[in-house]
Amino acid sequence: MSEKIKDAGHKGTVQFFPGLVLFFRRRVSPARLAILVAAAAAIVLLGIASFSYGSKLYTDWHQRRLLHRAESLLQEEKFDQAAQNARKVLTVDPNSVPARYILAEAAEKQNLEESVLWRAQIAQLLPKDPDSQLNLASAALRFGQIDLARKALNNVVPNYRGSAAFHVVAGWLARAEGNLAEQEAQFAAAVKEEPGNDIYQFNLAALQIQSNDSEKSAKARSVLDRLTKIAPFRTGALRALLNDAVGRNDLAAADNFAQQLQMSQEVTFGDYLLCLTFYRKLDEKKFRPLLERVKPFAVRNPSDLAALMSWMNENALAEDVVKWIDKLSKNELTFPPVSIAVAATYANTKNWSRLRRWTGTGSWGDSDYLRIAYQAIATRKSRNGGTEHTEFEKLWRSAEQATNEQPERELDLARLASKWNLEKESEQLWSRVAKNPPMRREALDALRRLYRANNNLEKLYDTLQRLHESSPTEAPITADLARLGLNIEQNTKESHDLAKEAYDRAPNELNCAVTYAFSLYRLGRSAEGLGIIQRLPPDQLHDPHGAVYVALLLADASQIEGAKEYIGTAEAGKIYLEEKKLLEEAKSKLAAASATPSPPISPIPAELSPTPTSTSLHRCCSRFALRSEAGRRSVLPRQRFRCDNAPRFYIGPVLGGRSATDSFYGLKSNF
Questions:
Q1: Bridge partner list, 657
Q2: 111-129 mean pLDDT
Q3: pTM more than 0.85
Q4: 274-302: buried (b, 16+ CB within 10 Å) or exposed (e) per residue?
Q5: 496-514 pLDDT, tens digit each
Q6: Between the chain's N and C termini, which has fewer beta carbons within 10 Å?
């Protein structure tokens, strides 16, 4: 049987390859053999090429299919599935830009920070594409990566930097840096490029309605009023208009906007708080009933309840919150946002014993660092037997450790430390927070206020330098840095340059103009400095800080009566340490000028005369002196005479409603 199987096998082989056997049995010429080999090779190569081409066609088809599927899922808001399909594309084509676009969009829709990573990869693959760089900058700003956003904007090709899209992103970068003047300039440039774009119109109007420039605010009001009739902008425009009406004490307009806002389909709990702010300020009769109607809605949601309590604390209603707390159940108060608001209430009412009990036990979850911090504050304020300082320090260190060095938590602690005047603790925290770009401006402003209050001029100067570096185009900061540098003789040459730069940017801003006038005085060009001051609105010059510099220049020009007026204004207000030295300098100059007998000059007129030329200023106001051979300066008696070109100053009232610091320095608590 085995032999039959073997024979059958041989027969099959011979039958299967009959041509091959005959081929080798026959004699083949070398030429024919070469032709046959070449043909076989061609067939093999053609087969390989066909297989490769077919494989590539399949791969491309499969990739397009995955991308199409991912795009469909993205539009259906199935973000995870869309991302999975896009990642499959990347396994086939690691350089696929469309796949990265889908991954970036899916991440942004879910508010995930990984969108910045995908936008960065796209920008790296398409370095010359302006939209890719702008998308990266926008994503970076969204998640607080300011330095990356600035770098991306700098990478936009020059010929695209005049586009509206570039100006909008640059405006939001300026906003993140705290540079509101630059933000307004960029938004205005975007509107100029695309005046028909309602988004750009809204962004600019919502900013300019807060402007002190009546023409700008009126125009913004008109734009926002138009946008209330367009659905996507209606609620936002109503919010801005309500805020503006409350600020202007326009009761009728505010009531109208409040009613419209409450009827809006997109109304939020925050909008109810905005309406409460209006009624609290302008219509007390409507305020209480509305507050009582809002309370039951707030209790339904811990975040809303905490928001309402915080709003009441900020509006001098902490005692009312204490009474409300007593009526709420324990379950309604145990959620961390509410627990924090309750602690703030007890602190605001200085009920330290109750605050210690409230924060002494339990846990507030991720917010436990605030529980410990409030406990530390209660311990320090209660002053029990002199041991509170050691216990406070121990608790505060525990609170700092509980932040786990997370910037957002350190920011909360820094704000709390500043509010309760914990100077050492707030300085340490703000210094750490300042290392985080999105929080840098707030931290530097807080450090600036701290060093200004303590007259720590060296650290104040360093802080102003950092502020200037982060917002180089913000004229008031530039002026503050220049003026302090001139006062403490730090980087004098640079300070003169910065004073000129600030004035060129904002010649009508009191802070910038006075700083430049002071710089000219230091350079021995007092007459030009007087010309700068003369062009300022007269009703702004009575700010105590500004009065110091005005008095100094007037005394240097021997305008005795005017100098006396401004010296009195400065002395009546609260001025800084270095300004007190300047005021003494002005008094010395005034004493020297008064010692010279001369007829009295007429009081300062109520209106400014036309700006005099430097020649007439010198002729009318300067001292004339000769130097003796020994090099000593001798002041010759001067003859007073009237000259129509002499500079005149009008002493007007302080700007209505603003503090001295606000009117002179532009920003609260500026240098």
A1: none
A2: 93
A3: no
A4: bbbbbbbebeeebbeebbeebeeebbeeb
A5: 999 999 999 889 889 999 9
A6: N
